[in-house]
Design brief:
- By secondary structure, this protein is of the alpha/beta class.
- It folds into 2 domains: 290 residues, Mur-like, catalytic domain (UDP-N-acetylmuramoyl-L-alanine:D-glutamate ligase), CATH 3.40.1190.10; 129 residues, Alpha-Beta Complex (Protein-Tyrosine Phosphatase, Chain A), CATH 3.90.190.20.
- It has 15 helices and 17 strands.
- The strands form 3 sheets. The protein has an 8-stranded mixed sheet. Strands 12-13-17-14-15-16 form a 6-stranded mixed sheet, sandwiched between helices.
- Helix 2 packs parallel to helix 5 and helix 11 packs parallel to helix 12.
- It is globular.
Length: 431
């Protein structure tokens, strides 16, 4: 039995040695032994390449405004591990996490002795979340973010009220496939029989796959730009304003505080989801407006300092970099942009760096302590920018960049979300 939070967390993290093991058999085995907690609560399932976390946050905030107790399961965490399992935005307590670990550990040990083998870290955490939301701290509804792909993701044992596929991009191509059709096929694996599917996917080849799967599963499909659409978008100093025609009604001048045109798409998905859920829950226009405005998700084109101007953005794949470059060009056309960039070594970074080169005045490539982190030198070698450097100490790089920023310059720190989760508390602590 684990007695401390540290012991429990160390055991959970020790499961990382098992890597990624696709398939749902181990999850189904654990759920059977736990009395199927995944079937004891309503759920919403959110997959896609980019925008999952933001969409979870918008929807959670709207539902919370309506008075519901809403569980969220997200990954990766940004500052604290416990964020991954939260209720109404508040992370699970250390005491509850220890208690849950003591429930799951014996099952893990037993499963290890079977032909299925032991559960991975992500499977363990997913199982914990189901038990927590259904048995330990029951919620009115739980929103589940897919960890990787969809079809074989450990969250894919739920039959949700509705499912959302935010976008399709070329990420995790060594696992999910190297083209939009293959990746869309994996993401579309969360589509269930008769369950409405919402999507903001744009590429025709990806959309065709999603539509085919929806037809096969007799699932009503709600596509952004068809069943619901954004109108009259305007960027504000501290957010975005847009109107939205949903499948059932029109909302004029909705506002969000997260920056970027792409965030209006994530918000639109959440509003359409709320409209569909309103058949089962009391959700008003006031709940939607207030929920959108209050929603906050760290590290997504986040201005963490205005003097000097410092922006954090977790652009960790090619589509994310496209969005970042577009927003920097649109919002800050006259600023010289100094960039700090870190990435994971298993990412395809060539095109990402090429696009960053196109907008950067200078780039500093850094590494950070993480098993899969790319070296600063490797990233540096790919860049064709004249004003570039490699720095192994990312904290030193940030200090130097911030202290030498001139009046018309801004610092943009971007790349892996694992990297940004270390950067943000460091900068905030430094003040």
């Amino acid at each position: 039995m684990f007695k401390s939070y540290e012991e429990a967390l160390n055991w959970i993290h020790s499961r990382l040695r098992l890597g990624i093991k696709p398939g749902l058999k181990r999850m189904e085995w654990m759920m059977e032994r736990l009395g199927h907690p995944e079937k004891k609560m309503p759920t919403v399932h959110i997959g896609g390449t980019n925008g999952k976390g933001s969409t979870v946050t918008y929807l959670r905030s709207i539902l919370q405004e309506s008075g519901l107790k809403v569980g969220t399961f997200t990954s990766p965490y940004f500052e604290h591990f416990n964020e991954r399992i939260s209720i109404n935005g508040a992370s699970i307590s250390e005491k509850d996490l220890v208690q849950m670990t003591n429930v799951i550990k014996p099952l893990s040990d037993e499963l290890e002795q079977t032909e299925l083998g032991g559960p991975t870290e992500f499977e363990v955490i997913t199982a914990m979340s189901f038990y927590y939301f259904a048995e330990m701290n029951p919620v009115d509804l739980a929103i589940y973010e897919v960890g990787l792909g969809g079809r074989f993701d450990s969250t894919n044992i739920i039959i949700p009220h509705l499912a959302i596929i935010t976008s399709i991009g070329l990420d995790h191509i060594n696992i999910l496939g190297d083209n939009y059709e293959q990746i869309a096929f994996e993401k579309a694996g969360i589509i269930k029989t008769g369950v409405p599917i919402l999507t903001a996917a744009k590429q025709p080849e990806a959309l065709n796959v999603i539509k085919e799967k929806a037809t096969e599963m007799d699932a009503p499909i709600y596509r952004l730009g068809e069943k619901f659409s954004i109108e009259n978008h305007h960027s504000l100093e501290n957010g975005e304003r847009f109107s939205l025609q949903t499948s059932k009604r029109y909302f004029e001048s909705l506002e969000i505080t997260m920056l970027g045109q792409h965030q209006t798409e994530n918000a639109a998905l959440a509003v359409e989801a709320a409209i569909l859920l309103a058949d089962s829950y009391l959700i008003t226009e006031e709940h939607i407006r207030h929920g959108l405005k209050k929603a906050y998700w760290p590290g997504r084109f986040e201005v963490i300092s205005t003097e000097p101007l410092v922006v954090l953005d977790g652009a960790h794949n090619e589509e994310g970099i496209d969005t970042l470059v577009a927003e920097l060009t649109r919002r800050f056309p006259r600023w010289k942009k100094r960039l700090i960039f870190a990435a994971l070594g298993d990412k395809k970074v060539d095109q990402m760096i090429k696009k960053l080169d196109s907008v950067a005045h200078t780039i500093t490539f850094v590494s950070f302590e993480f098993p899969r982190a790319a070296s600063a030198e490797k990233l540096y070698a790919i860049s064709s920018l004249d004003k570039k450097r490699a720095e192994s100490d990312w904290k030193k790089a940030i200090r130097e960049e911030i202290h030498t920023l001139e009046e018309n310059e801004m610092l943009v720190i971007t790349g892996s979300l694992y990297f940004l989760s270390e950067v943000k508390p460091y900068i905030e602590k430094k003040g």
